[in-house]
């Protein structure tokens, strides 16, 4: 009796119209409401300025007007501006100094600190702690380090009767000085990314390698490094994007000097757009920076792209 | 190449917890030994200690008379197949197999020859250039075994290698492992919690429980003459039936008395058995279904498991104890029936409260 009752109950709707089964993955448009605030700000603060910047870069624009259409005139002026070309070179030089160093030191620290000891935990915190500082604090600390005669560096060199290199004023060392401060500031993120990647490697393949007679170097080269290849690419791309945007350190430590040798593109953009009020040219320089970052990151991705390598 | 493995008074602690306690075991060359036991009994730890993946806190391990417990894993001359296969994901199958040989500088042509031979044995020459991510679970399993074979080790260690395979593949791989053992004539140690794997593969089974060895013996010895109540309950599906009884040792053989006063004569010699509370043990195939009132006791059928060639009848006695009987595949018994249960006293076992076992006299 109970069985018959159940059958009738479940069979009843089927006799009339077929009730569609519920697809739990079907989109529920009311959920759009939750995304809407983000989309609003994403559009108004990112998408719109992106296109507005492109529009500005082909116009003669200053603070008071967005003047007339000038075509590629702003770009032509840029490429005739030696200061701009110098800033492009400076930026590339800075990226070249910082990105590989950040990736390698980050990897080295992660390899050293990937263990479950209290010392490793303390050191991980210590190395990451510089990342939470603002650029103002970082540059202040490093200016104190670099200050001639009384700075930390001079003091240490003084103990050995030597003269410290003039990292801020020497034209050949100024960018290296900024790069050192930047590496100190930014090392936390690559280290943490590498640490998380290292911790994702299954322990048993290390055990298999131990049974396969692999020594430390063979294990690092054949097991660890290939396993974190994707993270390595990620770190490189993130750092390229970040370091191309060098501004604060250069502005606060050297003001772009000496002789524009530490002036990066962003500082050039700032000076052009907001000090000389040539918004059109500033926008054009921004577009070039945008394209440079895009190319660098894409090139990195394409060169090291995973060729059918599956986990 | 094969190996005698000698494990002497081995102990292992993880912090304050002892996982293996003064354990000794001797494995003969060319023997297939299975470590069988429930999760957490220490069987995998013991295997990993032989492999060198865990340190030995006490005692020693020797292969062919030479102490190896101080050697790193790669220097012990053993190969291991992991439960998760532990293949190197970024290397091709060929590179996975060659890695261990390259590390010790084996000549290229020797490496190639060994890989070709292993691939032929395992029927996987077409997989050599693929990466593990492009293989099915069963194929990965073969590669893991292949990686062990090419090293031509003194002993193979298997850590639950079949547990990630589906039922059909598990059965097939089990047979292939048995064939591989016959072909290679190597010492093999296999860890499992699956008694079917243990019974079908092993020359000898080492039943482990709670930090120690409960029994070492051939599969049929373990099945027919379990050393302890734990072994009797753990090996065999369904588990052995246990019924609390009173015993009478006045005769030459023990007679047991059930709660309903039924008396059954066993074939267990009285002079061996000590006093105390006892449990009567009998396997389901030694319990026959009889018409109501014609067996030793009556039971009410709770559950039927029809396995095809036989039917397992789960019955509940009047005092609530469960007894499983094995009936014909086309058994007419239905759930709710009251049936008689006839025990074969000659094949019964007796256990005391410490778990010690007594069996029927040997024929």
Note the main sheet of chain B: 6 strands, mixed
The computed structural class of chain B is: alpha+beta
Report the sheet-strand fraction of chain A: under 5%
Secondary-structure element string of chain B: EEEHEEEHHHEHEHEEHHEEEEEEEEEEE
Overview of the molecule:
The complex is a heterodimer of chains A (311) and B (363). By secondary structure, chain A is mostly helical. Chain A has helices at 2-15, 32-57, 73-80, 82-113, 118-129, 135-146, 152-159, 174-186, 188-200, 203-211, 216-227, 229-243, 248-253, 265-275, 279-303. In chain A, helix 4 (82-113) runs antiparallel to helix 12, helix 5 runs antiparallel to helix 9 and helix 6 packs across helix 8. Chain B is α+β, with helices and mostly antiparallel strands. Chain B has two domains: 5-230, 3-Layer(aba) Sandwich (Rossmann fold); 238-358, Nucleic acid-binding proteins (OB fold (Dihydrolipoamide Acetyltransferase, E2P)). Helix content of chain B is 23%, strand content 35%. In chain B, the strands form four sheets. In chain B, strands 6-7-8-3-9-10 form a six-stranded mixed sheet, with helices on both faces. Chain B is elongated and about 75 Å long. The model of chain B has no long low-confidence stretch (mean pLDDT 91).
